[in-house]
Amino acid sequence: MPLKIRSRIIVVSLSLILNMTYAQNGINCHRVDETGIIKKAFDSFENDLFDYYKFGNDSIKTYRTFLAEVASLSLDLRKLPSSNSIQLAREFKKIADNKNSLWIRLSEYENQEAVKKSSPSTNSKKNEEEVLIFNYRGGFIQCLKNTSDSDDFKEIIDTLEKDGNVSTSLISQRIYYITDKEFCAIEIKNFIAFDIYYSILMVIEKAFK
User: Cα(170)–Cα(168) distance, rounded to whole angstroms?
Assistant: First the structure.
């Protein structure tokens, strides 16, 4: 009997360790997407970043330099993105049509908030291309927030949930000042990849063939 109990304890312990490892590596968050495009896009983003800045394996320096250039509007968008990342941005744009997408129409996002406040919603102008913003209330970003150990990161997301119409430059500044220990987390790297990098690419993709 003690042997069986001991075996069960070992199994439960291993299960807990594996779950913690998955959470730390962001695996569960990537699993929110059944198509696999999120994982492909993140890998493409990191390849672009490390190829462009050439700081070797220095992840903090690479990411911080990227954020600093976005914040100061000095990023060379002609040279950084690969054709693969541009194509993935176009794919994200095509599927931004429901509340679970990584990006959502600004009018729909604002309407959700209007419903919460029981105030009338605003309609977008006809014949005008809708603006897309990152879906801070979607399953992927909520997973990143809930698995993160950074209170600063969670506070940033909480703020953006209420008002998502914030400039990429300002968001980059906020993320830049997160401490090194928390900055290396996969949740924050994923956030940078999608809310900053791909949000920019979705705007400029028309300039590329």
Answer: 5
